[in-house]
Design goal:
8-stranded mixed sheet, 18 helices, 51% helix, elongated, P-loop_NTPase, ATP binding, Anion-transporting ATPase
Length: 464
């Protein structure tokens, strides 16, 4: 079947999760679009379809732990209970501890004495806790560690929240460039020469540089950097080698990228940029997850018609005229309009039903009791039921306006999506209907998984 220019192919997430050749799924996109929830929902669905899955999140809000019923998430994968393992699947989850991952890398690739010297070095402590790109690099490092263990047949990665969608891909090269840079090589030179010759080189050949840096950064800081570089010398090549290996792993056919976005202009602009970057880097893109999409089961009632009907009701339109449409220009005479035409207050339970007559008692007491009660109770405006203050017409007009606003949102989201689809018609798309509240447990994650699998058809009528 040939698709039109504004129709994107559908993304089959179940086929993606069931494909045993797919070992890594990377959820990426701009911040605040639902990457963490998407990754968690995919993990739950994959496990219950028979995969041994682990979800790696970098979200510091710890929402993933709460939704999966885990007390805490840390650098160690923890098994998620209450997963239906009838198909042989299981799920583990973990949250990246950036510094601990860096420490583990140092401990694993050097001897104990040198590792202790590195870990205690003030410059290393600053670097491992907050150097630009360290979090993204350590996410890549942890991904490589998980893949090497071969304990799971599916790893789902929730990429770090960052200002740029490119940070996750650029971090290994950026950190590698820093470690291989001229500044680092200059600082390594004295240590490589060693002994008095090294100190002579440092004092003579680098006197101007170290003097300037000493004034700017402080002599102790510069010494800490030199000590760190000397201790890390044997590891620099390893950082670059592992970064290159993980980068190639992301390019391999067993990896699939999912770009997550909301149907908003900025989010889809970032998604389009990421799609183009993935293509340039020859990384396999599975498709786009369009999250928090709004829909309506009453879409045949357009926003324009709903607003027109609301204005008609609010301004005393045709429903208030005994002469029907012919009386649109007639003045409204309250004395000449029956109570039924003006509008009957809603009963306390909020249902839009006519008020019972004195002989048709549906409330458990007769009219006399009602009158006695009204005489005994004070006429307090705050104590009156809220529904009694509005007529049926007023409430209906309010609902019509809400529906009009909803339809305007639906139309705006569709235009935004169509712009993305026109730019990238080859990208498969699945839509996830917006939920009325936050996802906070496995039931909610399963609901998201159902919507991920079903795509646009899964959007329930009137989902908020």
């Amino acid at each position: 079947m040939t698709l039109g220019p504004d129709v994107a192919p559908g993304l089959d997430t179940d086929a993606l999760l069931d494909d045993r050749d797919i070992r890594i799924v990377v959820c990426c996109g701009s911040g605040g679009v639902g990457k963490t929830t998407t990754a968690a929902a995919l993990g739950v669905r994959a496990a219950e379809r028979g995969r041994r899955a682990v979800v790696l999140t970098i979200d510091p809000a710890r929402r993933l732990a709460q939704s999966m019923g885990i007390d805490r998430l840390d650098n160690v994968p923890r098994r998620v209970e209450d997963i239906d393992g009838a198909n042989g699947g299981e799920l583990h989850a973990m949250m990246l501890d950036m510094k601990r991952t860096f420490d583990e890398t140092v401990e694993a690739h050097t001897d104990a004495a040198r590792a202790r010297a590195i870990l205690e070095n003030p410059f290393y402590q600053s670097l491992s806790a907050g150097f630009a790109g360290t979090q993204e690099y350590m996410a890549m490092e942890k991904l490589g560690q998980l893949r090497a263990r071969d304990e799971w047949d599916l790893i789902i990665v929730d990429t770090p929240p960052s200002r740029s969608a490119l940070d996750f891909l650029d971090a290994p090269k950026r950190l590698g460039s820093f470690l291989d840079g001229k500044f680092i090589r200059l600082l390594m030179a004295p240590a490589k020469i060693g002994g008095r010759a090294g100190m002579k080189f440092l004092n003579v050949g680098m006197s101007m540089m170290t003097g300037t840096l000493g004034k700017l950064l402080g002599g102790q800081f510069l010494q800490d950097v030199q000590t760190f570089v000397s201790a890390m010398d044997s590891m620099f090549g390893g950082f670059r080698t592992r970064a290159d290996a993980t980068y190639k792993l992301l390019q391999a056919p067993g990896t699939a990228f999912l770009v997550v976005a909301t149907p908003e202009r900025d989010a889809l602009r970032e998604a389009a940029y990421f799609v183009e970057r993935l293509a340039a880097e020859q990384m396999p893109l599975a498709g786009l997850v369009l999250n928090r999409v709004h829909d309506s089961g009453a879409s045949r009632l357009t926003a324009e018609r709903a607003l027109s009907a609301a204005e008609n009701l609010e301004e005393g339109g045709i429903v208030d005229h005994t002469t029907g449409k012919a009386g649109l220009s007639d003045p409204v005479d309250p004395a000449g309009v029956s109570p039924e035409a003006v509008g009957t207050p809603l009963p306390p339970d909020g249902r839009d039903t006519p008020t019972a007559s004195p002989d048709a008692n549906e409330t458990g007491h007769d009219q006399g009791e009602t009158e006695d009660r009204s005489q005994e109770e004070p006429d307090d405006e705050d104590a009156a039921p809220a529904s009694a203050a509005y007529s049926v017409e007023q409430l209906t007009a309010g609902l019509l306006r809400l529906h009009a606003e909803r339809m305007q949102v639906v139309a705006r989201e569709k235009r935004t999506r169509d712009c993305f689809t026109a730019l990238h018609p080859e990208v498969a798309v699945t839509e996830v209907a917006a939920l009325p509240g936050d996802v906070h447990d496995l039931t909610g994650l399963r609901a998201i998984g159902d919507r991920l699998a079903a795509g646009p058809a899964s959007a329930p009528a009137g989902a908020a």
